[in-house]
Amino acid sequence: MTTPAPHELRLTAEQMRALGHQVVDLVVDHLSGQRDRPVHRRVAAGEVDHLLDEAIPEHPADPGGLVDFLAAEVLPRSLHLGHPGCLAFIPSANNFLGVLGDFIASGFNVSPGAWFVGAGPAAIEQVTARWLAELLGMPAGSGGVFTPGGTVANLAAVAAARHDRLGDDPAAAVLYCSDQTHPAVLRACHVLGLRDALRLLPGTGHRLDPDLVRREVEADRRAGRRPFLVLANAGTTGTGSIDPLPELADLCREHDLWLHVDGAHGAAAAMTSRGRAALTGLAEADSIVVDPHKWLFQPYEIGCLLVRDPTTLYRTFALERFRAHAGYLDLTRPSPDEVNLSDHGVQLTTSARALKLWLSFKGFGVTAFRAAIDRGLDLTEHAAGLVGRSAELELLAGPSLGILCFRYRPPSAPDTADLDAVQHRITEAVNASGRFMIATTTVHDQRALRLCTTNPRTTPADLDALFTDIMRAGQALE
């Protein structure tokens, strides 16, 4: 084979195979050795100056050396979200089949947006969305579209609800959600020009109150406004709280409102019997967002919007509604028995995101995913038991959908003690060890320690060791 010319941006087959083996070894070493490394270390701004100050690389460098550079200088300077000790945020414990799915999607560089361009990947995207809808209990005929994550999925859901209920005239629109709603959802409303239309209602026990929503809807209708949407939560990221979905579904049917459920974190739990019971009413929603890069253990980025009636997405986003002068796209317009997924969401060109989830479901079997989700629920119950058996720990919220919130409060502490500062200092001490990463949140105006136990590689022994560290840190402060 002749040596590729520089303008071809091509390597020889031998070079590509060698680099591929190098990268696979790097990824496998990372995935199989996370427990042996610190979950995180603080990176000072000055440590990355050599990255920020690099000059434009006009001339080629050895690709293998560049991979080594990334392994030594870039990748270690990040939080290892799949580490069994990473209990902060919502850990993303990805799996190797998902990694391979991303690699294949990038290597073939196909897009499922237009049937003419990527019919095979489009079929995989449609069947995988149907699987998800069925696994969450949605009725036959439900489907959806994959997105970069929950933010775009929620934006698309709100846009579809607005068009379905209000048409092309959003004047006097009103939508309702609780003060526990994720900032990404609120930002999506802002992007859609609905910030002033938002009724952000105080939660009762971190849950949206259907009676309060009803009163607000009726008052807005009397005032000549146009309520169209209720945004509910299936597992808030702060406390794992679940809004009363059956009651909200009844309310929405009574008042002809669209019910959207942000289940980016928690909806996947409905794949198990315990989770389905906790999420009663989820399947009555008009739309649901789930993030497979959270509790379905996929690499970033992959979100999914599921809808009871996929034609609502087409009516909202069909390219023909927005066409100006783009005749060159006529070649990609589908026949009646074909589906252009770009007509069902915000993005026109999109990567074949569903390949990794399809490969993971097929390769491991969905039964394994159910077991992994149940494992996360078991771990939260175990952590709650540790809190309950300690006189110095106080449960504030949960366990709910893999999330637990509690605080360290020694019996001798006076009521005037600055316990919020205590939780912060305990978190700093625990995280400084490098064995664990935990976070704090606010529950009932109190600072709390927060754990998310959805990583299937975390063990009960890990939690026992974590609570030993928490108790030692708290006692040291006394």
UniProtKB/TrEMBL annotation:
Belongs to the group II decarboxylase family. GO terms for molecular function: aromatic-L-amino-acid decarboxylase activity; pyridoxal phosphate binding. InterPro entries: Aromatic_deC, PyrdxlP-dep_de-COase, PyrdxlP-dep_Trfase, PyrdxlP-dep_Trfase_major, PyrdxlP-dep_Trfase_small. The keyword Ribonucleoprotein does not apply. The lineage of its organism: Bacteria, Bacillati, Actinomycetota, Actinomycetes, Pseudonocardiales. One of its GO terms (biological process) is carboxylic acid metabolic process. It comes from Saccharothrix saharensis. This is Glutamate/tyrosine decarboxylase-like PLP-dependent enzyme. Signal peptide: none annotated. Its cofactor is pyridoxal 5'-phosphate. The modification N6-(pyridoxal phosphate)lysine is found at K294.
